[in-house]
Amino acid sequence: MKLLKAEIDGFGQLYSKQISLDAPVIVVYGPNEAGKSTMFGFIRSILFGFAKRTLPNERQEPINGGRHGGRLIVRGAGEESFFVERYATDGSGKLTLRKIAGMPGADETHPEAAALTQVEWERDYLGGVSEKLYRQLYAITLTELQEVGALSGDELGRYLHQAGWDNGKTIAMAERRIALEMEQLFKPRGTNQQMNQQLKSLDQLDGELRKREDAILAYNALKIQSASVDESLSLLEQEKPGKEARQALLGKAVSSRQIWLRKQQLQIERETIAYAGAIDALDEKSWMELLRRRTELESESERLRQKSLLLELQQEATVYDDGIITLTEEAEALLLTSEHIRQLKEDAQLIASELSEHDEMIARLVTSIAPEWTERQLREMHVTVADRDYVRTARQEELDYTRTAERFAAELETLKQQEREASAAFEEASSAAMREAQRRAQLGDSTGFEVLPLARDALKGAWNALDSALREWELERVRSAGAGSARDSAAGGGTAAAGRGGAGLLWAAAAGAGGAALALGAAALAGAGGGSGVAALALAGAALVLAAAAMLRKRDTRSRSYRRNGSSQQALSQMEQRVYQRLEALVKKPQEAAAALLASKQDSSPEHLLAAEQARTQLRAAVEQCLEALQHSERLDNSSSELARRLERLHAHAASRSEAAAAAAQTRQAAARQWAGWLAARSLPAGMSPAAALEAFELAEQALQRLQQYDRLAAKQAAADKQLAAYAEHAAKLCGHLEEAKAQLAADPTLALRLLHAEIRRHTAAMQESLGIRSRQDELLIAQRAADLQQQEIANQMDLRLKEAGLASQAEYELAIEHRRSLRELELELSKLTLELTAGMSSERAQALEKLYASYDEDELQSMQMESQAVIQTMENSKRELLEQRGRLRQSLDQLLREEEHQKLLSDRAMTIASLEKDAERYAVLAVSSALISKTKRIYEEERQPVVLRKASEFIGKLTDGKYIRVLSTPGEPGIRLESSERRIIDSGMLSRGTAEQVYLAMRLALAEEASRGAKLPLMLDDVFVNFDRSRLQAVTGLLSDLSHERQVIIMTCHEHVRDEILSNVKEALLVQL
Amino acid sequence: MSVPFRFIHAADLHLDSPFRGLASAPAPVREALMESTFAALRELTQAAIRNQVDFIVLAGDLFDEADRSLRAQLALVKEWAKLEEHGIAVYVIHGNHDPLSGARAELKLPSNVVVFGSDQMEYRPAYRRSGELAAFIYGRSYGTRIVTENMAAAYQTQPEAPFHIAMLHGNVDGDGTHDPYAPCELQELIGSKGFDYWALGHIHHRRVLHEYPHVVYAGNLQGRNPRETGAKGCLMIDVTAAKVLDLSFVPLDSVRWLERSMSITGIGSEQELLLQLEEQLDLALTESDGRMVMLRMVLNGRGPLHHKLMEPVVTRVLLEQLQEGRALDAGERWIHVYALEANTGAEIRTEELEAEDSFAGELYRMSMELSKDQLKWRAFAQDAIKGAASHAKLGRLLRSEWEELPEHWLEQGRELVLGLLHGNERES
After folding, report:
1. In the predicted model, is pLDDT for residue A353 greater than 70?
2. Is A936 within 8 Å of B359 when comparing Cβ atoms?
3. How many CB atoms are closer than 10 A to CB A351?
4. Which of A850, A893, A897, B211 is 20 to 30 A from A870 in CA distance terms?
């Protein structure tokens, strides 16, 4: 890539500047602050974008105006030219690329314009060089140049790798991480690293394992030990029984020596009484039996003798009288009746009390019949059926009489009551009639019109006559008045005509109404008296009066209008006269009434009409009231006369009933007289009623019954008394034989009899006993004889025994028996002792024991026993020890078998080794990884670095005019070294500043060459030659001239000599003066 | 014609063996593991009794430590006594782990047990339980821990035997993962020697090297470390009258070691990863045949989680999460994830990297060259680990690993660096 032209719109201090760069080498010359570095920055900014605002120093906002940015015209590898445009304002510094079709410098632009991303731009046009790399390799200032010198070996290496692959840091990070992990795992001399620690614990485990006893060896040793112990034990077990037996025998000998001695003694004793052995146990037994039986028999005969003596004494004591005994049957027979006698006595008492009771009862009954009655009257009293019937009939009759009398009394009482009530009603009715008459008298005052006291029909007739007279008068008046009014009023013609037309009709109606009203009033009066009737009448009257008044006015008017002449007046007065006449017949003051009624005669004004009407109504009411009162008093008169008639009837009835009652009383008295006669005939009390008589009959019958019972009982009592006397006599006869009984006889013959009977029985018993004693005495005698015989027999047997034993006496025989017993005891003891000595022993041992007793005395035996004891004790002790030892061994064995510690250690060890192996493997992998990185780095350093270094060597050779021929960098060693033409190796640190800078420049140029083989980016050097001398400057310009064939070189300087030197040395160099 | 019979071939009991390769384990797991070899031994006895076998051959390495475990020796005697009660004979040779020179508890072996000596090959007739002669059994124990002579060479059949069973503890055809003790060639065993069945021990992986004659490793009874994965037990062999053999495997292990791998490709979050891991655990449990499971989970593949998994803390936490979710009740079957390994890679397209002119590209190309050239790799690796390998104690302890220089180091290292570079670049 080659820059052809820079067009700066605005960048730092530069603005609107067009700088041609179309040359292989461009020298930008200017004094300080002329804008060289700014231009340097401009080109970088166009290629790689504006710096961030935070770095104003690099961003370089225009200070003299113009748009921030500009464009470069560049030619690519394919000889095509482009505008490369970048403005800070356009899409925040996005790059725009446009192809230029024609000559370089021509403004004609290709229509195609492309906005590229920075990545695309760098990849497609800049050969993948990033800004960072560009700065490091292609845009070099003095500072950057000197960085090369400060590089240590690894850093240089990284630098070098970075030049080829931009992730040196990545590699370093990977290396660091691997190294870190490796260090954590293991360090050859470390202690805390994982594997070192595992090694340590492994050592410990091994140590512990070594320290541990070998289980199998221990087991075997224990087995051997326990075998020997078992052997010793079995040996002991074998020896033990013999020793123990000996010990036991000796012990026995010592303890039983006394027994042995006693045994010897007894044997001697036995010799002396051996003779008794001849008598055997059977002999002894039968001897003893004989002795026993003899003794028995002796005592038996003694007993019998005693008994017979006793019986004789008893016989003497038994006494009795035969005479008394003969009375036995008689006494017993009498005693048998004694019970019956006792019963009789009790009955007699009972009968006596019963008799007295009857007596009392009879007396009471008789007395209740009549006080004067005695038993005689009772016995005479004979009540027949006829008597009873008569009494019952008398009782019935009396009852009938009494009822009749009562009925009459009651009737009379009722009649009297009715009479009283009827007379009271009659009085009330008369007084009511009186009151009515008075009230009627007062009636005229209240109405104003005093009606004459007339009869009802007369009054009615008078009223009707007045009424018709009044009506006629009215008609006449109306007629005259009507003629007058027609004349007065012309306009009233219509009405008059109508009135004329309807006059007949009206009249009929008024008459009808009046009639009806009157009829109504009459009906009301006839119906029911009282206030309501009067009111209705008054109403009807009023209606009538009104109707009449109306008609009267019309008629009056008409009569006035038609007739002016006196004919009408005359008729009217006639009428008036007639009214007056009629009034006279009706009222007491006809003038006043006529005046009131005929008030409308002269003046037919409504007021007068109304007054006349009222007067008429009042009159009519007075008449009606009068009528009503009349009717009422009539009714009252009727009722009082009716009541009077009824009273009369009642008086008559009462008189007839009184007569009947008197007749009844007479009949009754006759009956009473007859009854009294009857009573007297029967000597019954005179006042006794038939009912009492019946009662008396009953009582008398009861008393008679009692009397009969009484008689029967009295007879019974007499019989009993006779029997008792006979009994007492018989008893007295018998009891005469016994004194005690005789004494008792008086008190109670039965008791006396009993005493006698007891005596008799006693005598009988004594006789029986005496007989018994006699028979027993006989028995005893026989027994006595038998006992004597037996005794004799035994004595014979005993003699026989003595003879058999060859002994003289009984005493000797008994001694022999004694000896025999001793012998037996001796023998028993001897055998016991022998048993004690030899119990449970075999015969050999018994013999050995015997031998011991025979050979040794007691002391010797004791000492022998002690010795044996000691031996056995020793054996026991050793056995116990052995057993204990065996127990311990078994325990140890058990422990050994249960041991798990060893296994645990082994397992721990195995686990430790496993972790160690795991970590070691990881370590190995890490080590391999690390080695892989190192080796790759070495490849870089050894295979790719040499190209760089070769170039650098070539360049330094040129720069130093062959003084230095090679640049060296050894992997793993820091810094760059130089080889001089004398094959001397010089470290870059040892070089002069100028030379060092030349070396670094050579490195840079070489790296730049190596790093990007694709796009040849222009190389920009910002015054890096200041420390070069002339010849070196010449050399470097020469070198740059060579390089510029392939790559555009832009050199900025403020030094004239540098400028001139380049311009003179490089023919194609273009000077840009700022 | 011979009689039909049945026998059990077992080897490498390694009784009371401590569990190697397990950095830590909760107590119940630890106990179960420590008990497991004994449990397997008891199972063996039960299997023999249950299946009414006529005899058992044990081809060496009965104890794990040469002369250390008393418990193991007692347990053996106890189980053998049980077999004696059932009339089952036991033929035993000792191997490199339990040579005859080792200390031995003073125990009286039951009468049914025959232990072969170490001086030379011996033979014994073996009978059916009913009393007929079934076969001759040949064998020789290790006298010392290390036997490098070809023992098999001296094995000879006896002509009167109806069937020949040879017991040999050794490395047939030089299995590089096991010590080259009593080395011999398969060809030698199946050649003209005339044995019908070679009952081999020493190699813990069960396999049949040849049939008619059968050359068989029974494998060990119980897996004891992360490398001994899968079902373990003994072989039961039925021999017909016509000498037709029928081998059946009888699993005896109480704890089963398993390894499962899972790719992280496409897994976006730790949560998702954990869920998928749990699924894997459940799968492992269903495959475990009702046994307790010791599981190692290996994550592989390339995925976005790689960077996180590169942090040891992350895998540790994930592992703890997996462990916490599972109860370890004694007596119940359980699953214990004892390791979670991340052999994962960043999301890098290797073909691009191969051509890339970059540090990473350079590194990738260089490491690929190393993995192609074994010698170069060994030199490179030795140089890389020389700091640790030259450490006296560590060097001695881990000599085998240091000497083996497994290539997965290179693979893991490459992935680690590329991952770091990739991740860091992405971050910056």
Report:
1. yes
2. yes
3. 18
4. A850
- The pLDDT of residue A143 is 75
| Angstroms from A224 CA to nearest CA on chain B | 9
Residue of chain B whose alpha carbon sits nearest to that of A910: B20
- pLDDT at residue B165, as a whole number: 92
Tokens 């006042």 label which residue? A687
Distance CA A152, CA A989 (A): 11
- What's the DSSP call for residue B143? S
For residues B177 and B217, give the distance between their C-alpha atoms in angstroms, rounded to a whole number. Answer: 15
Q: Do A36 and A65 contact (CB within 8 A), yes or no?
A: no
Q: Do A671 and A394 form a contact (C-beta atoms < 8 A)?
A: yes
Average pLDDT, chain A: 78
Whether residue A924 and residue B388 make contact (CB cut-off 8 A), yes or no, is yes
Residues of A in contact with B30 (CB under 8 A): 907
Report the SS3 class of residue A424.
helix
Q: Where are the domains of chain A?
A: 216-268+824-896, 281-320+780-820, 442-634
Looking at residue A501, its pLDDT comes to: 42
Residues of chain B with Cβ-Cβ distance to A178 below 8 Å are 416-417, 420
Q: What angle do CA A501, A502, A504 make, to 5 degrees?
A: 105
| Cα of A198 to nearest chain B Cα, Å | 10
Amino acid at A454: L
Name residue B355's amino acid. A
Stretches in chain B below the pLDDT threshold 50: 428
Contact criterion met (CB below 8 Å) for A451 and A576: no
Read off the pLDDT of each residue in A549-557 and give the average, rounded to a whole number: 54
Contact: A917, B394; criterion CB under 8 Å: no
Cβ-contact A460, A631 below 8 angstroms = no
Q: Which residue has the tokens 């410990």?
A: A204
The edge-to-edge listing of strands for the beta sheet with A113-116 is A14-20, A2-11, A69-75, A81-87, A95-100, A113-116
Single-letter residue type at A715: A
Supply A900's token pair: 């798990």
pLDDT > 70 in chain A, percent: 84
In whole angstroms, what is the distance from residue A575 CA to residue A472 CA?
A: 7
Task: Quickly list H helices, A137-280.
Answer: 142-150, 153-164, 168-185, 194-211, 215-272
User: What are residue B342's DSSP bridge partners?
Assistant: B299
Number of other CB atoms surrounding residue A134 within 10 Å: 20
Does B104 sit within 8 Å of A911, measured CB to CB? no
pTM, rounded to two decimals? 0.48
* In contact, B70 and B121? CB cutoff 8 Å: no
pLDDT digits (tens, 9 = 90+) for A294-351: 898 889 888 888 988 898 888 888 877 777 778 788 888 888 888 888 888 888 888 8
* Contact state of B366 with A936 under an 8 Å Cβ cutoff: yes
A687, with CB counted inside 10 A (0-12, 13-18, 19+), is: exposed
In the prediction, which pLDDT does A305 show? Answer: 87
Q: Element (H or E) spanning A1073, and its range?
A: strand A1070-1073
| Three-state DSSP string of A277-318 | HHCCHHHHHHHHHHHHHHHHHHHHHHHHHHHHHHHHHHHHHC
Task: Compare all CA atoms of chain A with the CA of B381 and give the residue at the minimum distance.
Answer: A928
3-state SS, A857-895, equals CHHHHHHHHHHHHHHHHHHHHHHHHHHHHHHHHHHHHHH
Token pair listed for B192: 């003209």
User: Using CB atoms, which residue from B68, B359, B380 is nearest to A931?
Assistant: B380
Q: Which domains does chain B have, with CATH numbers?
A: 5-251 (3.60.21.10), 256-427 (no CATH)
Cα(A909)–Cα(A930) distance, integer angstroms? 30
CA distance B404 to chain A (A): 12
Count, residues in chain A: 1074
